[in-house]
């Protein structure tokens, strides 16, 4: 059940919001928890039992991980319990997400010597990368004494399975939401009024822009190597750069808006990432909840930047190899992670991670950073490393071959206008999502114009959804 499906928009979301409004305030967490499990079960089926099993293990371990001033739970015992629970969570992730990839590599190696090795074929549970990280955040934050364990299973179920962020984030660290779980807000209509415009904005970004660009991007990336051209390669790379942003940030906007309508404030996930002037800054602005998670639970525990340059570079390398692998069990994601890790190390080594003071230098660095990000997205989207290298090779060597018939057919006038308009948005001085018209300007004319634009956009997005022209969110595959 996707956020952009008629089942969700016309039935599930209104039913949950109505229940939150009319039932007693103290029932909010129960409504959200039950609704979230129904939401998950419609897409994941029997994998709901896997989610519930993980929840039982982590909830049961929570109280025993709390710091104990009376010495009833020795620090060493708590540490081993934490290691055991985190190992359990990671084992679930590794088995279902990476067993197939690992056995493929073993089978390929065995084949070199005439051997045969069976390949595991396991379906990927929806949202497993996200709810695994939520579980780890929960037990680690309790172990560190940053927040107490939850004794109420309903509140715990609300945190882990909350449907706005269950399938594709944002990754909500336990410390960020622990204080909100026991709160039962009085102004529920105000929450809906505040959250719905954000949800509507995300729906417009997804249905109008991202889904419209998708067929053109697919046509470019599926072009055979012997038909690939300079124009197709750049059209596909730029198109995917825009499609991915509007798809994923659109999901995040919808999730944050939904969370607010339910009375929760979820963390921001994007902050004009394509306007960054360094790769370091890009990772402070792109998928921010993932960056913060790896910083708090991997990078800093490894030592961060506290023990010299060599160990800092090692820690960055570990984090970005894991970041790439987290996105998918394929070498393309690993290469993408290594690529960004190498860029960060180079910036830090040469002192290029600081924001330039001169305006002309900032413009040049911004253009260079965006170019490097676009190159990286080719690895992220390509079917394999060979296809990525082929496309990058054509991007670096101009030719005058033009577009194939398939790509030219996919590049309709409407998509060309959307592509140019979406690209132009990133160079506006205001928020790149929809320009200054959708910013929180206080003047009445700006507010009225913003409401008008959003109303038209929302109506058009609803028509697209009703006609079945939507597609799954790109980050559902992770």
From TrEMBL:
Membrane-topology descriptor: Multi-pass membrane protein
Subcellular location: Cell membrane
Pfam families according to UniProt: MBOAT (PF03062)
Keywords: Acyltransferase, Cell membrane, Membrane, Transferase, Transmembrane, Transmembrane helix
GO molecular function annotation: acyltransferase activity
Swiss-Prot/TrEMBL GO biological process terms: alginic acid biosynthetic process
Membrane-crossing residue ranges in chain numbering: 7-25, 37-60, 80-99, 119-140, 325-346, 367-383, 416-435, 447-475
Main location class: membrane
Any one GO CC term of the record: plasma membrane
Family statement: Belongs to the membrane-bound acyltransferase family.
Protein's name in the database: Alginate O-acetyltransferase complex protein AlgI
Annotated organism of origin: Saccharomonospora amisosensis
């Amino acid at each position: 059940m996707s956020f952009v499906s008629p089942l969700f928009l016309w039935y599930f979301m209104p039913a949950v919001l109505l229940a939150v409004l009319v039932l007693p305030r103290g029932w909010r967490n129960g409504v959200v928890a039950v609704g979230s499990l129904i939401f998950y079960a419609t897409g994941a089926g029997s994998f709901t039992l896997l989610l519930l099993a993980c929840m039982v293990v982590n909830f049961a371990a929570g109280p025993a991980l709390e710091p104990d001033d009376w010495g009833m739970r020795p620090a060493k015992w708590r540490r081993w319990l934490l290691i055991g629970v985190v190992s359990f969570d990671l084992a679930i992730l590794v088995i279902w997400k990476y067993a197939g990839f690992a056995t493929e590599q073993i089978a390929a190696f065995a084949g070199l010597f005439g051997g045969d090795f069976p390949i595991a074929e396991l379906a990927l549970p929806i949202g497993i990368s996200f709810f695994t990280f939520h579980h780890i955040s929960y037990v680690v934050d309790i172990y560190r004494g940053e927040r107490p364990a939850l004794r109420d299973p309903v509140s715990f179920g609300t945190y882990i399975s909350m449907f706005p962020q269950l399938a594709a984030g944002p990754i909500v660290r336990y410390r960020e939401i622990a204080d909100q779980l026991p709160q039962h807000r009085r102004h529920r209509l105000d929450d809906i009024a505040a959250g719905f415009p954000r949800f509507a904005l995300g729906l417009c970004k997804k249905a109008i822009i991202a889904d419209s660009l998708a067929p053109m991007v697919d046509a470019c990336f599926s072009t055979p190597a012997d038909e690939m051209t300079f124009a197709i390669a750049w059209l596909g790379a730029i198109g995917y750069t825009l499609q991915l942003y509007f798809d994923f940030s659109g999901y995040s906007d919808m999730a944050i808006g939904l969370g607010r309508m339910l009375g929760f404030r979820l963390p921001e996930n994007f902050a004009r990432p394509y306007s960054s002037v360094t790769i370091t800054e890009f990772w402070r602005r792109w998928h921010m909840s993932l960056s913060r998670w790896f910083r708090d639970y991997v990078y800093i525990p490894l030592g961060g930047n506290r023990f010299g340059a060599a160990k800092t570079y090692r820690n960055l390398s570990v984090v970005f190899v894991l970041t790439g692998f987290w996105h998918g069990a394929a070498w393309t994601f690993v290469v993408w992670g290594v690529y960004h890790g190498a860029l960060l190390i180079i910036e830090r080594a040469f002192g290029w991670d600081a924001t330039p003071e001169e305006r002309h230098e900032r413009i040049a660095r911004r253009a260079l950073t965006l170019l490097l990000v676009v190159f990286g997205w080719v690895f992220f989207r390509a079917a394999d490393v060979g296809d990525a290298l082929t496309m990058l090779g054509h991007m670096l060597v101009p030719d005058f071959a033009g577009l194939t018939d398939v790509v030219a057919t996919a590049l309709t006038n409407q998509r060309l206008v959307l592509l140019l308009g979406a690209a132009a948005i990133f160079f506006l001085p205001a928020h790149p999502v929809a320009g200054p018209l959708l910013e929180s300007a206080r003047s009445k004319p700006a507010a009225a114009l913003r409401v008008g634009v959003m109303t038209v956009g929302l109506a058009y997005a609803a028509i697209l959804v009703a006609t079945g022209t939507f597609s799954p969110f790109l980050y559902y595959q992770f």
